[in-house]
Amino acid sequence: MNIPNTLTLMRIFLIPVLVVVFYLPFQHHLLVAAGVFSVAAVTDWLDGYLARRLGQMTKFGAFLDPVADKLMVAVALVLLVERHNTILLTLAASVIIGREIVVSALREWMAELGQRTSVAVSYIGKVKTAFQMIAIIGLLAIDPTVHGNALQALCYFMLYAAAVLTLWSMVIYLRAAAEVMRGQ
């Protein structure tokens, strides 16, 4: 175990904390839930940074980090779908979760072919992740029964933008995989 892997495991352990805090009936529980997710989002960035900086990259970390990210995001999106109960948020969440499943399977398959670098994380994927994380933090913090909130509208827009970028990055990954397939 090293520091980056410990941070990744912490992110996984924060998932049930997020769920419990989200549903606990105390004042500002949504802000606390957003705070829990924020800590997880920061550890997502920090574990990768520290792994590179400290030379502590491991196969276990390379496996576990994307799993932790996808679990945290998927659980947060499910919570938001239940709480916000809108078709557009549900559609955006479905696109984001569905893409993560497709791209994870694609990366696994490409790794078996020895071509994992052909489907490495792209710049669009990083922008998508930033939009997605900011949107989720904002939407977790906001009570959806309060209408006319400009911050809520901005967060919805950012989540929809993340869903569009999600589809775009998936097309890029699928094209890269198709080129590898044609080459074989």
Write the topology of this structure.
Blueprint: H1 3-23, H2 29-53, H3 59-84, H4 87-112, H5 123-141, H6 150-183
Summed up, the domain count is 1
Which fold name fills CATH's third level, the topology?
Answer: Four Helix Bundle (Hemerythrin (Met), subunit A)
Number of strands: 0
CATH architecture: Up-down Bundle
**Subunit organisation of the chains:** single chain
Structural class assignment: mainly alpha
The residue-averaged pLDDT reads 90
CATH class: Mainly Alpha
- CATH homologous superfamily descriptor: CDP-alcohol phosphotransferase transmembrane (TM) domain
Mass-distribution shape: globular
Q: Tell me the major beta sheet.
A: none
Task: Record keyword descriptors for this entry.
single chain, 184 residues, mainly alpha, Four Helix Bundle (Hemerythrin (Met), subunit A), globular
How would you describe this structure to a colleague?
With 184 residues, this protein is mostly helical. The chain has a single domain, classed as Up-down Bundle (Four Helix Bundle (Hemerythrin (Met), subunit A)). Helix content is 82%, strand content 0%. It is built from six helices and no strands. Helix 2 runs antiparallel to helix 5, helix 4 runs parallel beside helix 6 and helix 5 packs antiparallel against helix 6. The protein is globular. It starts with a helix and ends with a helix. The mean pLDDT is 90.
